[in-house]
Every structure is written in C-alpha cells, then in structure tokens.
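#onboarding

Welcome to the new folks! Below is a worked example of what a typical request in this channel looks like: someone posts a single protein sequence, and someone else replies with the predicted structure as tokens. Don't worry about understanding the tokens yet, we'll cover that in week two.

Example request:
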Amino acid sequence: MLVHYSPEHNVHHEWVYNAADIDRAKIVWAREIPGRDWTTLLDYFKDRRSGWSEPTDSPPKLEEYRRPEQLLPGRAFRREGP
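Example response:
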C-alpha cells in the first residue's frame, strides 16, 4: 500500500507499519517520499496488487494504484497534491 501524507497530516497518526518479515507480509506499506521513484519497490513486489492511500482525506481514501503505462491515455494515475 503506497501512502501519501498531505502537509496537514498529523505525524503522530502513522499509517506505515510493516511486519518483520516484509517479503512474507500480507500487506507491505510504503510512505511517499517527494522526488523519489517507486519503480524499484513496485518491481520488487511485481506479483502483488498495489494500492494508494490518502489518509488525511476524510474519509481516508484507498484506491488501486496503477502505473502510468497501465492507464488509458488521458487518465491521471493519482490525485495531485494541494
């Protein structure tokens, strides 16, 4: 699950926690780091479905994540920041 925190996110309300054995974990959480590419992470877990979360939204959003090359032309792959 890829997580995007908005600037309004309360740092004491963390969503990103992983099991000790991350390769066998049912869900793997990853926090968005501005300017960093997710390609390596998504390639490593290529046999899994990817999700996208906006925990600051009310209610929090959980959506399927698709890489830009998986989308139809003209469709955005995620909501842009504020």
